[in-house]
Amino acid sequence: MFDRIMVVYDRSRSASQAFDRALKLGAPGNSEIGIAAVIRSVEFALDVGAQDALECSSAILDQQMSHWARRARFAGSAATVFVRTGHPGTQIALAAKEWRADLIVTGHSVSVWTFPWLWLSSSVSRQLLVLAPCPVLVVP
User: Fold this and answer.
1) In whole angstroms, how far apart are CA 128 and each of 47, 51, 103, 140?
2) How are beta strands 103-107 and 78-85 bridged, if at all?
3) C-alpha–C-alpha distance, residues 73 and 91, integer Å
4) What tens-digit pLDDT sequence spans the chain (140 residues)?
5) Reduced to 3 states, what is the DSSP secondary structure of residue 22?
6) Using an 8 Å Cβ cutoff, are 101 and 108 in contact?
7) Residue 47 is part of which domain span?
8) Chain centroid to CA 97: how far?
9) CA–CA distance from 131 to each of 7, 121, 134 (Å)?
10) Into how many domains does the chain fold?
11) Quick one: pLDDT at residue 84?
């Protein structure tokens, strides 16, 4: 069992499966779930209204992630939401280090067994395996 589990949120089905797995891995009544999402700053770099777009994206993410936070609290875990801007792999690893996560749980939409060459590309999951300050569980 883990006390502090960080889950990566990216609106994918595999991320939802990773969240479900994280809830099962937590120590009953003692675990904390950190829910992390990253907005890639390059998406806004050329936009004239970059700050407005960034704030709008953050608000939408907060709203969507609050559903997971409620589910975590209902399951008996404390929940903290992290929304960052930048490169996903780097920002999630930094958030996990600052929050002192015991485990990072992330989804991955490509089957490692069916398409291993695709998984070996520069995916966030792969980057976390290198950058993370704690163990990483990749849920397909």
Assistant:
1) 29, 28, 11, 15
2) unpaired
3) 24
4) 799 999 999 888 888 999 999 999 987 778 999 999 887 765 445 555 666 666 666 677 777 888 999 999 998 899 999 888 888 899 999 999 999 999 999 987 544 444 444 444 448 888 898 999 999 999 98
5) helix
6) no
7) 4-139
8) 13
9) 15, 15, 9
10) 1
11) 87
Q: What is the CATH number of the domain that holds 27?
A: 3.40.50.620
Task: Write the CB contacts of 7 (distance below 8 Å, at least 6 apart in sequence).
Answer: 15, 18, 19, 22, 33, 34, 35, 36, 68, 104, 105, 106
Q: Is 49 helix (H, G, I), strand (E, B) or coil?
A: coil
| Token pair in block for residue 132 | 């993370």
Q: Can you read off the two tokens belonging to residue 4?
A: 């502090």
